[in-house]
Amino acid sequence: MAVKLEARRPRAVVLGGGRGVRPLWILGQALPGLALIAMFIVCAVIEPDVLSINGVGLLLSPAIPLVLAAVSQMFIITVGDIDLGNGYLIGLVTAVVAVQMVSHPLLAVAMLAGIAVVYVGQAVLVQTRGIPSIIVTLGASFVWLGLGLSLLPTPGGTAPGWLVTLMNLKMLQTNRYELPVPMSLILAALIGTAAYLVIIRLPYGAVIRAVGSNPDALRRAGWSVLKARMAAYAFAALFAILAGLALSGVISAGDPTTSANYTLLTVASVILGGGQFSGGRAVPFGAVIGALAISLVTSMLSLLNVSSSYQTGVQGVVLILVLAGRVLTERSDS
Amino acid sequence: MIRTTATAGSTGQPQAPRSWRGIIRDWPSRRPWIWSYIAALATWIAVSFVAGRGFGGTLTSTFGLVPFLVLVGIGQMVVITLGNGNIDLSLPNTLTLAAYVSTGVMANGKGSVVLGFLAAIAIGLVVAAINSFVILALRVPPIIATLSVGLIIQSAVLVDSGSMTADPDPGLVSFTSSRVLGLSVLGLICIVVAVGAGFVLMRTSFGRSVQAIGQKVQAARLTGLRVRTVIVASYVIAAVFAAITGVLLGAFSSPSLDLGSPYLLNSIAVVVLGGSLIAGGRSNVAGIWGSSLFFLLLETLLEVMGASVAAQDVVQGVLIVLVLVLVGNRRNE
Fold first, then answer.
1. Which of A119, A261, A319 has the highest number of chain B CBs within 10 A, making it the mutation to test binding with B?
2. How far is A146 from chain B (nearest CA, A)?
3. Domain span at residue B206?
4. What is the CATH number of the domain that holds B132?
5. Does residue B174 sit within a domain?
6. Cα radius of gyration rounded to whole Å, chain A
7. Assigned domain for B18 exists
8. What angle do CA B216, B218, B219 make, to 5 degrees?
9. Pairs across A and B, CB distance < 8 A
10. Contact status, residue A196 vs residue A185, Cβ threshold 8 Å
11. What's the domain count of chain B?
């Protein structure tokens, strides 16, 4: 008989720890938000037009695929694994969408389901054969890239109209009324909430988190670690597929290699958002805000007119600084 | 130097089994590198039949291509053996940058080859210094630290390649494809390097420190090892090996922006397939040679079979995972 696990909210427990609220802890919690606000202010200073609903929408809508991808990576990091194939996986999804979604929607859905099954299969290899996830996902990344390139050797194809429309929607509106909030912010909030409900609020979410923090205890309590890890990978696959859909909507086509750097950016987003490589700590909203902040780095650099040769380098420096800041607050926290 | 008990995992064996069956069963599991040679052998036979080039021709032509992967693989292996998540994902970018800079320095044979190598080594040292600083001082986890540093190096490559007009030094170009008794000189040198690396890792206090840190870093620290120094030295070895490979590869097949990209995944794959533990603590140089041979023979096989680059990627990915499923990569196996 499996012991029932309470879906507890870790934040409340930490705050109620009786040791008072420590300033560095608050800084650590607020870090991704602060990074996001800082990036946004820099963008607004360079380009004041950013400060309108359209401006925010324009700035953040390319971020939505990365937000979804970061949530996908968060599920993997929560169980103590890492997905190094994430970028090419999403590229493959855009290829499937752009090549098949319009002409053969059912085939496209079946292919996406097949991708998800293979993805969950990785969890089985990690769990039962004890092969580190870093290697399994690295091997899988070859597979995703190869499949993507064989479907779509050069960027192209057509994304379904509804996807393009959805991703380019500036705000929710009817004939009479419009909601004065940028659509991309609404989407980001929805994604964060969905992830939060799954990993924090759902009772089984606690089981998934326990895979990362204490798999032995989970096993002794009668739960299957294999099933829990597979569940985490299944949710990760779901969000990665959504990320691929969103990305093909943004670029209104498919491209197996355009999202190659997502692997680094999603890992960085999750760590910036408060996740830990050792697993056990799920940070749905942190991952979302971290992804928004990191995608603003790219926007900021292009607004600053940094030449494209230097952009990747500056991105690297900013990533290191932001992550070093995260680690510094972590260390004093313990 | 304190002599640690941290010898290579495979030499600290439990009691030997008596029966022949036991010996046959246990022999390969004590020698995880053997699988890479079996895989290489099988692929070699397959290539020889499919390509119709004969066994000798296939092997000697592969022998000339392997050194690049072996050199990068050895560097990656040293870092991975440190365990605790240590890995160098900036190696491909270091390789590419070194290829461009050294080619520029050697300037069509008007510059000095020695200066070209020195420039590459300097690049390796700088990259290793940055990596070590970010990992040890800023405490950023190695995976994202080295990936981010890789982005910075990539920028340097883009800036440098913009003004690049030189061709590789002709002397070095002919050296990289020269042969003695039908065997690639570079391949022969690389065997010597591999033996040297094996000696350093298994027999010197540095090598044993690397493995000890990979097995249990707290214990290594308590025995008085200078953990940070060893970590920095390991990243230096990895980056310098990659940079030197860059010079050679730049001469062998002229610099290009994605010269190093295949080495990101392949360098890790050869380490793991070669029987070193991805979790650290056990390394195996012989396995690097075996798995590099396997990789290049496999590439040749897929090419002669007319597989597209995309199909090659898929097969390679599936095989990496498949071999690991069969062999396993666990510490207590």
1. A319
2. 4
3. 31-327
4. 1.10.3470
5. yes
6. 20
7. no
8. 65
9. 150
10. no
11. 1
Q: Which residues of A are less than 8 Å from B86 in CB distance?
A: none
**Closest approach of B188 to chain A, Cα-based (Å):** 30
Helical spans, DSSP H, in chain B: 20-30, 34-51, 55-63, 66-81, 91-106, 113-132, 142-162, 170-176, 185-203, 205-215, 217-222, 227-253, 262-273, 285-304, 309-327
Q: Give the C-alpha separation, A194 to A199, whole Å.
A: 9
| Contact between A313 and B155 using a beta-carbon 8 Å cutoff | yes
Please tell me the predicted confidence (pLDDT) of residue B3.
44
Which secondary structure element, helix H or strand E, spans residue A147, and what is its range?
A: helix A133-151
The residue ranges of every structural domain in chain A are: 31-329
**Closest chain B residue to the Cα of A324, Cα to Cα:** B138
B320 vs A: CB within 8 A:
yes
pLDDT at A16 over 80: no
User: How far is B289 from chain A, CA to nearest CA, in Å?
Assistant: 19
Structure ipTM: 0.78
Coil, strand, or helix at residue B180?
strand
**Higher local confidence (pLDDT), A114 or A32:** A114
The C-alpha torsion from B306 through B312 and B314 to B315, rounded to 10°, is 80
* CB contact at 8 A, B156 and B166: no
Residue B1: inside a domain:
no
Angle (deg, nearest 10), helices A262-272 and A23-46: 130
| Closest CA–CA distance from residue B175 to any residue of chain A (Å) | 33
Closest residue in chain A to residue B330, using alpha carbons only: A130
Contact B141 A271 (CB under 8 A): yes
Nearest residue to B120 (alpha-carbon basis) of B243, B235, B242: B243
* pLDDT value, residue A227: 93
Cβ–Cβ gap B148/A311 under 8 Å: no
Query: Across the interface, do A142 and B141 touch by the CB < 8 Å criterion?
Result: no
Which residues fall within 8 angstroms of residue A268, CB to CB, at 6 or more apart?
A290, A294, A319, A322, A323, B144, B148
Q: What is the rounded (10 degree) CA torsion for B74, B79, B82, B87?
A: -130
Residues of chain B with pLDDT under 50: 1-13, 332-333
What are the DSSP calls for B77-121, one per residue? HHHHHT-TT---TTHHHHHHHHHHHHHHHHGGGTS-HHHHHHHHH
B138 lies in a domain?
Answer: yes
pTM of the entire structure? 0.84
**CB proximity A130 to B under 8 Å:** yes
Assign domain A31-329 to its CATH architecture: Orthogonal Bundle (1.10)
B307 in A contact zone (CB under 8 Å): no
Interchain CB contact of B152 with A (< 8 Å): yes
Q: CA-CA distance, B109 to B88, in Å (whole number)?
A: 32
To the nearest whole angstrom, how far is the Cα of A77 from the nearest Cα of chain B? 13
Residue A12 has pLDDT above 50, yes or no: no
